[in-house]
């Protein structure tokens, strides 16, 4: 398929896009990314373990389970054979939930062509190790270019061709700095570029990945307070203070502050905290309305990354001495049996602090226990 060029794109024309890609994971986001590659003219194999999904993509160009009614490019080929998916691939995107990433990366490692670039697209932190997704992939896939794709991207909208932007992040080594046109980040960004999908390049892999992991936890908090009947003031406060938590964790791990203000940080945080299209926001909202966890999503199994990651994010933050009170509140409610109303009332009644962090002031909140209990009642 002919590759089109897009005016105004500052990526130098000398860049050689990838010719052959594998997308590992045929859920909503894997399918949307595979469709994006295919639309950009990249020869793409989408691997899924569910034979019915694979057959539907190959025969009817639709992922009946994860993106029903959204037409996919007819050039997109799906397979349930991992060897076939990876054969000749210059780049692979791994797009499975964070808790499955290590196992899938291990399977990929056994068959990956030498020199194949890998980008992880799961958003989270591994529970057992506290590692970011690209760090997990590195442990399994060894010495090759490993990065991520992240940003404010609801899969269905991307698959429908709505204008979407995301960040492609890889660490830039010496060779990449000398010749950025040949860097994996730039090549992958160009390979994903279509008239509606716009990719930005970053060398701050840690900063980008922390954004994706933390925003899901904050979205659960926003959903909880929305479900409990509160509105825009509360949501804006949670988004803004959530961004502060994201920034503190990213900077402590060596990420950059500016990255947090980009697509993978505030971009994804604001998207996910604004709509119940987000599974994280939707879970929070149902819990805030008083539903039991097992009744949420009408009992269907749904990937809600912020749920497991409330624990892994706060475990990591505690280890590093980073204060993340909103994430701690979500963790307490989801994992430690805290009452939702009491936990949020306690969050609001913490000692007052300075903004931004760093000024050495903290002073007691003047509310009485009775006043805090009254707020807790209102939230519940
Ligand atoms: N959906 C979105 O809008 C976006 C999602 N993401 C991130 O992408 C990741 C995946 O999410 P998403 O695609 O939405 O999830 P979905 O629930 O839509 O799909 C998950 C996919 O992963 C597969 N899978 C799960 N575990 C394994 C395993 N052990 N081995 C092989 N395949 C497995 C599932 O297969 P099966 O169907 O057989 O269970 C399914 O195809 C998450 O980290 C999410 O945060 C990022 C940006 C946007
Ligand atoms: O990461 C996403 C959008 O960028 C998808 O969000 P949810 O997982 O909450 O649906």
From TrEMBL:
Positions bound to NADPH: 29, 49, 66, 123, 155, 279, 303, 305
Gene3D superfamilies: N-(1-d-carboxylethyl)-l-norvaline Dehydrogenase, domain 2 (1.10.1040.10), NAD(P)-binding Rossmann-like Domain (3.40.50.720)
Active site: 215
Entry binding sites for substrate: 123, 279-280
GO molecular-function terms, A-Z: glycerol-3-phosphate dehydrogenase [NAD(P)+] activity; NAD binding
One GO CC term, this protein: cytosol
Pathway note: Membrane lipid metabolism; glycerophospholipid metabolism
Catalytic reactions on record: sn-glycerol 3-phosphate + NAD(+) = dihydroxyacetone phosphate + NADH + H(+); sn-glycerol 3-phosphate + NADP(+) = dihydroxyacetone phosphate + NADPH + H(+)
HAMAP family to which the protein is assigned, alphabetical: NAD_Glyc3P_dehydrog
Protein family according to the UniProt entry: Belongs to the NAD-dependent glycerol-3-phosphate dehydrogenase family.
The protein's name in its UniProt record: Glycerol-3-phosphate dehydrogenase [NAD(P)+]
């Amino acid at each position: 398929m002919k590759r089109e060029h897009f005016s105004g794109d500052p990526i130098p024309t000398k860049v050689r896009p990838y010719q052959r890609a594998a997308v590992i994971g045929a859920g909503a986001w894997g399918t949307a990314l595979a469709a994006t590659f295919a639309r950009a003219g990249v020869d793409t194999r989408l691997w899924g373990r569910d034979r019915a999904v694979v057959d539907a993509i190959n025969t009817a160009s639709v992922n009946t389970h994860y993106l029903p009614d959204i037409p996919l490019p007819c050039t997109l080929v799906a397979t349930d054979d991992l060897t076939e998916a990876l054969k000749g691939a210059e780049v692979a995107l791994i797009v499975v939930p964070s808790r499955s990433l290590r196992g899938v990366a291990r399977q990929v490692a056994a068959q990956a062509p030498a020199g194949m670039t890998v980008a992880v697209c799961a958003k989270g932190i591994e529970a057992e190790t506290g590692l970011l997704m690209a760090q997990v992939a590195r442990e399994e896939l060894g010495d090759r270019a490993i990065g991520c794709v992240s940003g404010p991207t609801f899969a269905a909208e991307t698959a429908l061709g709505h204008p979407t932007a995301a960040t492609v992040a890889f660490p830039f080594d010496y060779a990449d700095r000398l010749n950025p046109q040949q860097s994996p980040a730039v090549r992958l960004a160009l390979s994903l570029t279509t008239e509606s999908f716009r990719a930005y390049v970053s060398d701050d892999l840690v900063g980008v990945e922390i954004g994706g992991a933390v925003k899901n936890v904050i979205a659960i908090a926003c959903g909880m307070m929305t479900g409990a009947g509160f509105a825009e003031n509360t949501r804006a406060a949670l988004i803004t203070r959530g961004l502060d938590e994201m920034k503190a964790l990213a900077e402590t791990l060596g990420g950059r502050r500016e990255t947090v203000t980009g697509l993978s940080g505030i971009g994804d945080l604001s998207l996910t905290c604004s709509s119940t299209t987000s599974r994280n926001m939707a879970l929070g909202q149902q819990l805030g309305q008083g539903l039991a966890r097992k009744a949420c999503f009408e009992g269907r199994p749904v990937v809600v990354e912020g749920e497991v990651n409330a624990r892994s994010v706060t475990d990591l933050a505690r280890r590093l001495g980073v204060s993340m009170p909103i994430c701690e509140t979500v963790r307490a409610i989801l994992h430690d049996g805290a009452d939702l109303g009491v936990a949020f009332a306690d969050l609001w009644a913490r000692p007052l602090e300075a903004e931004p962090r760093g000024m050495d002031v903290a002073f007691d909140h003047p509310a009485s226990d009775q006043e805090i209990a009254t707020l807790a009642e209102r939230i519940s």
